[in-house]
């Protein structure tokens, strides 16, 4: 059994170049990805790069002044923080100011417009049956229930698990480039609790002919109930091309009432709606995610998974709508009072999930999915001011921190040169590899997860210099111990590795565990420190295993190191090595001569 083990060890010793080639390929690939992405520098936090500061003021709804309290303000801060800083490393800051204001600081390099939408949008989501719809200022729109939809409709809502089959729902109003930035509740008109009636004759309010099927009549309502004349009058007067009118549409309405709303279709035209009571709301959505749909060619879509109760509600409303004629076989997905999609259905969707598709970009799809996943704000907020924040103070602190880091690195290098001499070359190269990997990965994490480098994160990177150098020292000292025992360099390198490896792994595990706990239990900038410390600790393990050890194995074959040159740092005499222990043979007995 010993012979095969010796052969395997010999084979491992003879091919350290594989490990070196692997880590060099990884560095080249990551560096290439960094240049290909166009992000060649890490994103900086607001303390280092400046950014945008947004002040939001809580606005009470009618008769709900008491809703603006500490509990709801803290809840709003938590939701906003998760929207713009989901992984805790984008360095966006959200905090209260006084009893009614929330300050949001967004670092430079972040899409400030998208961030403003995410923090300011209340994200109250409702699924409402469509009673009537027409292009605002134009003729009534009557989408036919076909796979392609009407001339103005391109969105499609389907049962996500059956997206590749025949279309079960196809859409109308594509999402606007951005949901309305001022969150508000959608509703206040007429109570009704069933699906739209199958008929909707023309009325004078629509300006359409009596045969137009998509116009609203005085009797059109979500459940066949008598429509309120005030609601019809509001629909007739609604001009969705007017921003003020869009903002006021359905203001103060309740989810249980019918209402009017606006939405933008695929052609960029504003469309107005009479909508029935909300059948499903945002609390029934368990999870939402942005997905690029290649099966149906829909591009970027938002896929939603409903809760158990939400699945039943959604199956019920789509089953009822499927029996109606257009446009009353449509349901509108209403976000903060604006219709972002109004697909029609031809069968009940019972899979417990749905898909919103249309003219989404990756950013708009992810933004909508993010808001739906983290839930609606408990309060409505109005944007009071938007200011630019400079990085003068942070720049000075960064300069001081970099100087401190350079001094610390220089002291480490001097110590290595004086104490380890030739071995210090291996340590310095290992530090360079670790620094390269850290920089490239931080640059890539910026666009990937929104990571931003702030001052605490810089401190974490500086602390990592000591952690990385400590791993080299542990291994070098183990090798020296083996040489002191009288072994030559090549066996000493291999025998020292198992013990050094165990010590390095335990040390790095403790450091990573501390970083993980710090990341979980803290918030804000301290998370940046913890994240950087944990990242560099993992990279330390990679560098020691795939670069430092294989490089030392190769160097051990060089005469300069193998012969124990006095400048190699492995001179047996200067290390106080013991002479090799040799066994002496004892004579078996007196030697007999031939004569004897």
Key structural traits:
four-stranded antiparallel beta sheet; 596 residues
What does this molecule look like?
- This protein has 596 residues and is of the alpha+beta class.
- The protein is 44% helix and 17% strand.
- It is built from 16 helices and 17 strands.
- The protein has a five-stranded mixed beta barrel.
- Helix 10 packs parallel to helix 12 and helix 12 runs antiparallel to helix 13.
- The longest helix is centred in the C-terminal third of the chain and has 33 residues.
- The radius of gyration is 34 Å and the shape is elongated.
- The chain starts with a helix and ends in a 21-residue tail after the last helix.
What is shown here, in short?
The chain has 596 residues and is an alpha+beta fold.
How many strand segments?
Answer: 17
What class, by secondary structure content? Answer: alpha+beta
For the largest beta-sheet, the strand count, sense and barrel status come to:
5 strands, mixed, barrel
Quaternary structure classification: single chain
- Unreliable residue stretches: 1-13, 139-156, 161-227
Radius of gyration, CA atoms, in whole angstroms:
34 Å
Distance between the termini: 47 Å
Q: What's the average pLDDT?
A: 74
Number of helical elements: 16
Describe the strand arrangement of the main beta sheet, using strand numbers: 4-9-8-14-13
């Amino acid at each position: 059994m010993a012979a095969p083990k010796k052969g395997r060890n010999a084979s491992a010793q003879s091919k350290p170049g594989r490990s070196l080639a692997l880590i060099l390929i990884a560095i080249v690939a990551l560096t290439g990805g960094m240049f290909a992405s166009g992000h060649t520098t890490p994103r900086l936090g607001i303390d280092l790069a400046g950014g945008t500061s947004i002040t939001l003021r809580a606005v009470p709804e009618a008769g709900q002044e008491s809703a603006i309290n500490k509990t709801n303000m803290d809840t709003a801060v938590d939701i906003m923080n998760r929207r713009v800083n989901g992984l805790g490393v984008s360095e966006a800051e959200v905090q209260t100011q006084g009893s009614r204001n929330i300050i949001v600081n967004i670092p430079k390099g972040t899409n400030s417009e998208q961030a403003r939408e995410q923090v300011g949008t209340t994200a109250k989501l409702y699924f409402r049956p469509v009673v009537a719809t027409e292009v605002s200022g134009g003729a009534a729109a009557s989408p036919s229930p076909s796979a392609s939809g009407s001339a103005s409709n391109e969105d499609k809502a389907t049962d996500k698990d059956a997206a590749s089959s025949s279309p079960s729902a196809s859409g109308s109003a594509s999402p606007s480039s951005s949901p309305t930035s001022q969150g508000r509740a959608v509703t206040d008109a007429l109570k009704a609790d069933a699906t739209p009636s199958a008929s909707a004759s023309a009325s004078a309010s629509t300006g359409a002919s009596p045969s137009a099927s998509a116009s609203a009549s005085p009797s059109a309502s979500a459940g066949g109930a008598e429509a309120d004349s005030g609601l019809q009058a509001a629909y007739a007067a609604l001009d969705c091309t007017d921003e003020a009118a869009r903002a006021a549409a359905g203001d103060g309405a309740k989810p249980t009432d019918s209402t009017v709303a606006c939405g933008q279709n695929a052609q960029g035209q504003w469309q107005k709606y009479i909508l029935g009571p909300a059948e499903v709301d945002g609390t029934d959505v368990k999870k939402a995610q942005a997905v690029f749909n290649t099966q149906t060619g829909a591009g970027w879509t938002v896929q939603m998974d409903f809760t158990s109760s939400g699945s039943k509600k959604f199956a019920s409303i789509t089953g009822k709508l499927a029996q109606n004629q257009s446009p009353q076989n449509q349901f509108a997905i209403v976000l903060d009072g604006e219709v972002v999609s109004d697909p029609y259905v031809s069968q009940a969707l019972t899979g417990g999930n749905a898909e919103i598709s249309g003219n989404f970009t990756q950013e708009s799809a992810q933004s909508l999915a993010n808001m739906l996943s983290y839930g609606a704000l408990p309060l409505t907020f109005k944007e009071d001011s938007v200011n630019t924040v400079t990085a003068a103070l942070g720049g000075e602190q960064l300069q001081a921190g970099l100087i401190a880091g350079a001094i610390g690195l220089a002291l480490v290098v001097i110590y290595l040169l004086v104490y380890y001499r030739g071995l210090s070359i291996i340590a310095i190269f290992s530090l360079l590899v670790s620094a390269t990997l850290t920089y490239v990965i931080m640059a890539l994490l910026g666009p990937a997860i929104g990571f931003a480098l702030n001052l605490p994160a810089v401190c974490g990177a500086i602390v990592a210099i000591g952690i990385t150098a400590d791993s080299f020292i542990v291994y070098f000292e183990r090798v020296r111990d083996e040489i002191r025992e009288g072994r030559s360099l090549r066996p000493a390198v291999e025998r020292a590795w198992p013990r050094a490896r165990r010590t390095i792994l335990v040390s790095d595990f403790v450091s990573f565990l501390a970083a993980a706990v710090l990341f979980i239990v803290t918030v804000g900038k301290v998370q940046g420190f913890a994240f950087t410390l944990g990242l560099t600790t993992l990279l330390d393990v990679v560098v020691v295993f795939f670069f430092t050890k294989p490089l030392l194995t190769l160097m051990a074959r060089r005469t300069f190191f193998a012969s124990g040159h006095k400048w190699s740092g492995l001179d047996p005499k200067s290390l106080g090595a013991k002479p090799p222990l040799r066994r002496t043979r004892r004579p078996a007995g007196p030697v007999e001569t031939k004569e004897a």
